[in-house]
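Table S2 (text version). Query chain:
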Amino acid sequence: MSDKKIKNNIIMFFVTGAVCLLSMLFVSKADMDEYVKLVTVVSLVCAFFFIGLYFAGRIFYLCFKKQ
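Corresponding structure-token output:
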């Protein structure tokens, strides 16, 4: 059961990264003011950092927790 949870968390980590990169690509192509683009990309990067940190923490917790 733990292997399945680890696998799901790894998949979610990479899916979150892909969604963040696609969102940044969409924002860069959108017709917005440069400041709005900057704020949007910075907030996307911060959100990905904290969500990725959560998944990475869960992966390490599940890998090293006592059986």
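Notes on Table S2: The chain is about 90% helix and 0% strand. The helical segments are 2-29, 34-64.
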